[in-house]
Amino acid sequence: MDESKKLWGGRFEGKTDPGFAGFNNSFRFDQRLFEADVTASIAYCVALEGAGVLTAQEGSQIRRALEEILAKSSFNDSSAEDVHSFVEARLIELTGDLGRRLHTGRSRNDQVATDFRLWLREAIDDLNTIVRDVQTALLDFAETNRGVVIPGYTHLQRAQPVLVAHWCLAYFEMLARDRERLREVRTRVNVMPLGSAALAGTSFPIDREVLARSLGFAAVSRNSLDAVSDRDFCVEFLSACSLIMVHLSRLAEDIILYATIEFGILELGDAIATGSSLMPQKKNPDSMELVRGKAGRVFGDLLALLTTLKGLPLAYNKDMQEDKEAVFDAYDTVASSLRVSATVLRNISVNSERASASTGYMNATELADYLVRKGMPFREAHEVVGKVVMRAIELGKELDQLSLADLREFSPLFAEDVHVAISLEQTLSSKSQVGGTAPKLVASALAAARQSLNE
Fold first, then answer.
1. Phi and psi, residue 348, nearest 5°
2. Is 356 a catalytic residue?
3. What is the spatial distance between Cα 160 and Cα 151, in angstroms, rounded to a whole number?
4. Positive or negative CA dihedral for 416, 419, 425, 428?
5. Is 307 buried (19+), middle (13-18) or exposed (0-12) by CB count in 10 A?
């Protein structure tokens, strides 16, 4: 770019070093803010008319040119320093010196902060929709396998049986919190910094409240120094993205484990698995492994921005240019990971035989609870059942295969009803308090979850 065409070129006589210029320029990534920049510029043009800086005719001419720029611009071979320079240069090409007046009372500092918030507001809405689709896929999978029981695990050891639908609802709840967090972040994104100028505010009578409403902002910033240097909203967004990736990574880990021959609970469809270049029998869960791996990338985006911001003095510093690549990368990564996760959920099936929850002594807690209902203190019941389990292991039997006589060797409280009490059906249905895995509760939870998505 010609030095005379730079937005800041008047103070300089010498040419910018080409290496530094390339290092300094941000257009290769901030061109994603193009639509937001033009939209904000059109609104700012109206505000300048209201302030008496532009006549109605001048404002109309500038707005027509901006609309043309929005509709017809190509970024190919542009040497612009940033998206703001690109738009302003095109405006001046179309309107001459009139285009130079649009920047009156505006700095790139409040301009980029506004553009970024406009872009991020839309990005959050997009993510919210994609997260909702993953929730829908979870509910579809749950309802397809409504009656299937799988082992629940703690410490990766078989613990207690749960419905596969209950497992799905656990991830549904995680994603529901993610959507709630995104909505909360959006409220703080939706504050307009435009009118703060470089750092001290503008000296032109811009009606910021009217300007904010025209751009759909819920409020205007209250301090100009803070407005141009605030990137809390970016950190909050990256934090929300990181938690989404935590949840997707946990889901991925479950699916990866459950799809192994050792677990054998899930079967991967061909659409979401790959093979081995050497071993023809392999069916690899690359889709979920990539989601699990990309979580670390998003965590890195969050840490990078926190580290960038931690020592910055007020107000704007060029370091803050680093915010965009972190946010753009996180958005792209999370969006693609969510889409792949939804696809995976629509291309897996349950191996009902291998998913059996009738082995592994997972009804041991029910046996202890049975003794408690007969009057034995829980700690004593826990110890008694532990000894019963040891005997069952020695005999190579499950708890429900032990005879009443076998059980009475450990306590006279065992009676004829014990085998019903520790059956798989009773083990599930007994978890009947809110949030439990009892089939009736899970059916109600599925219906409530579906309704929440439709509201």
1. -125, 155
2. no
3. 6
4. positive
5. exposed
Annotated active-site residue in 74, 155, 203, 277 = 155
**Residue 58: partners with Cβ closer than 8 Å, 6 or more residues away:** 49, 98, 101
Task: State the catalytic residue, choosing from 107, 203, 249, 276.
Answer: 276
Strand 157-163 with 149-154, pairing:
antiparallel
* 426-452 residue pLDDT tens: 999 999 999 999 999 999 999 999 999
> Is-above-0.70 flag for pTM?
yes
Reading the block at residue 445, the tokens are 């939870």
- HEC-encoded secondary structure of 126-184: HHHHHHHHHHHHHHHHHHHCCCCEEEEEECCEEEEEEEHHHHHHHHHHHHHHHHHHHHH
**Size (the chain), residues:** 455
List of residues 6+ apart from 233 with CB closer than 8 A: 117, 120, 185, 188, 189
Q: Decide if 283 contacts 271 (C-beta within 8 A).
A: no
Residue 276 is among the residues annotated as catalytic for this protein: yes
Q: What backbone phi and psi angles, to 5 degrees, belong to 121?
A: -55, -45
Q: What is the pLDDT of residues 45-89, one digit of tens each?
A: 999 999 999 999 999 999 999 999 999 988 876 789 999 999 999
Residue of 295, 293, 324, 297 lying closest to 308 (CA atoms): 324
> Could you give the C-alpha distances from 145 to 19, 128, 301, 405, in angstroms and in order?
60, 26, 37, 38
The amino acid at residue 119 is W
What is the spatial distance between Cα 29 and Cα 83, in angstroms, rounded to a whole number?
A: 9
How large is the C-alpha radius of gyration of the chain? 31
Counting beta carbons within 10 angstroms of the beta carbon of residue 270, is it exposed (0 to 12), middle (13 to 18) or buried (19 or more)? exposed
Integer Cα distance of 369 and 24 in angstroms = 68
**In the numeric block, which tokens belong to residue 138?**
């979870």
Query: Do 211 and 47 touch, CB atoms closer than 8 A?
Result: yes
Task: Find, among 84, 298, 118, the residue nearest to 190 by Cα.
Answer: 118
Q: Which of 213, 207, 214, 208 is nearest to 63 (CA)?
A: 214
Locate 78 and state its tokens: 């542009």
